[in-house]
């Protein structure tokens, strides 16, 4: 494997102006339409398999022919298919294109690589597993083994339901398969959009950043998302918990009377519940914990949240993390109140809460 440093990362790609969108017919088969609503690929793919909502260049599909399922494969807009029986799955879900790349798994070697937007192998299948690219960076695991939960040995012929990776090395690579970090902290949550190279005159004391040495000795840094949020929450939000700047346009909350999630404008929330929010946030007896969550597309389905979801409709957690503050009194066994924050393009914003508003 090549190991050298590029002076520039590949920037994240905006949505293509020629993006197609999936649709489903009465037979629950999926096809694709262009922005004008014209059918470009008729419905013939299995809905439960084809997970692509936005079709930019490449999609994972499973065709249904005369009522029978065919083989999983990849599809280009030209109609060309390739990569039969090599679709990458995670949690029973087929992968989607991100930043012009999509993962595949070689069934013979059980290794993972990347196709580019033309359907060519951009990175050979040499990794045990890989995360999708974000801002030209991907976390990959090499030479790891599958280990069943509960110390049961993994049997590929009779795989266990719950397993995780054991041993191996976790690395950070770029789109040219250059290794930027040979021992990436696997359980970290860094904001790859904040990647920057540091020079000799750089101030390496930013408390929200983690600093790393590349194989060539150069230094780069990334914002540690949880630390950044904790510092912002304690130093900004708690200082002014009812500042309108801390809240999204609408706040989702659980309605006990209607037994469903509903929306309230931030103006109504702060007008009617500001004293309650202040009391909860400023109570000296309270105990709080920070949880990393995902953006729920069933609750946050407004078009203004589109940029926070990928082509599969999944939350882009490594770009726009969601944190939840659980608040409880010491004598309580469980958490009584929750406030959820999304790191938006304009900073952290409250997007939901269940503060017993009824």
Description:
With 358 residues, this protein is mainly beta. Among the domains are: 17-55 and 58-96, no CATH class; 227-353, Nuclear Transport Factor 2, Chain: A. It contains two helices and 27 strands. It has a six-stranded mixed sheet with strand order 23-22-27-26-25-24, with helices on one face. Strands 3-2-1-4 form a four-stranded antiparallel sheet, with no helix packed on it. β11 and β12 form a beta hairpin. The protein is globular, with a radius of gyration of 23 Å. The model is unreliable at 1-16 (pLDDT under 50).
Provide a short characterization of the protein structure.
This protein is mainly beta.
Beta-strand fraction estimate: 35-45%
Described by its quaternary structure, the protein is: single chain
The span between the termini is 59 Å
Q: What is the CATH C-level name of the domain at 227-353?
A: Alpha Beta
- What is the number of helical segments per DSSP (H or I, 4+ residues)? 2
Gyration radius over CA: 23 Å
Q: Any idea of the CATH topology of the domain at 227-353? A: Nuclear Transport Factor 2, Chain: A
How much helix, percentage-wise, in residues? Answer: under 10%
Shape: globular
Report the major sheet: 6 strands, mixed
Q: How many strands?
A: 27
Which stretches of 5+ consecutive residues score pLDDT under 50? 1-16
Q: What is the CATH-assigned architecture of the domain at 227-353?
A: Roll
Strand order of the largest sheet: 23-22-27-26-25-24
- Give the averaged pLDDT, no decimals: 89
Q: Which sequence of SSEs, written as H and E, runs from N to C?
A: EEEEEEEEEEEEEEEEEEEEEHEEHEEEE
Name the structural class. mainly beta
């Amino acid at each position: 494997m090549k190991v050298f440093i590029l002076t520039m990362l590949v920037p994240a790609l905006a949505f293509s102006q020629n993006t197609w969108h999936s649709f489903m017919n009465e037979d629950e088969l999926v096809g694709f339409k262009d922005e004008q609503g014209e059918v470009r690929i008729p419905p013939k793919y299995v809905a439960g398999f084809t997970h692509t909502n936005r079709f930019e260049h490449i999609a994972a599909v499973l065709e249904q022919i005369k009522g029978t399922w065919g083989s999983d494969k990849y599809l280009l807009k030209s109609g060309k298919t390739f990569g039969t029986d090599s679709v990458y799955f995670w949690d029973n879900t087929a992968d989607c294109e991100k930043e012009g790349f999509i993962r595949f798994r070689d069934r013979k070697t059980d290794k993972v690589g990347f196709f580019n937007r033309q359907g060519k192998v951009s990175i050979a299948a040499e990794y045990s597993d890989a995360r999708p690219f974000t801002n030209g960076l991907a976390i990959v695991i090499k030479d790891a083994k599958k280990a069943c939960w509960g110390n049961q040995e993994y049997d590929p012929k009779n795989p266990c339901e719950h397993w995780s990776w054991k041993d191996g090395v976790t690395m950070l690579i770029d789109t040219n398969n250059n290794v930027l970090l040979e021992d990436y902290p696997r359980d970290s949550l860094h904001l790859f959009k904040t990647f920057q190279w540091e020079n000799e005159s750089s101030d390496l004391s930013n408390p929200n950043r983690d600093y790393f040495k590349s194989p060539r000795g150069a230094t780069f840094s990334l914002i540690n998302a949880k630390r950044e949020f904790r510092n912002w929450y304690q130093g900004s939000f708690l200082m002014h918990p009812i500042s309108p700047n801390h809240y999204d346009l609408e706040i989702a909350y659980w309605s006990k009377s209607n037994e469903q999630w509903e929306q309230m404008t931030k103006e109504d929330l702060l007008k009617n519940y500001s004293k309650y929010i202040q009391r909860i946030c400023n109570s000296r007896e309270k105990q709080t914990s920070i949880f990393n969550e995902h953006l729920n597309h069933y609750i946050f389905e407004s078009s203004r949240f589109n940029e926070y979801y990928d082509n599969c409709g999944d939350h882009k957690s490594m770009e726009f993390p969601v944190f939840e503050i659980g608040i409880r009194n010491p004598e309580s066994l469980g958490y009584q109140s929750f406030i959820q924050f999304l790191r938006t393009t304009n900073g952290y914003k409250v997007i939901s809460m269940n503060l017993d508003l009824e």
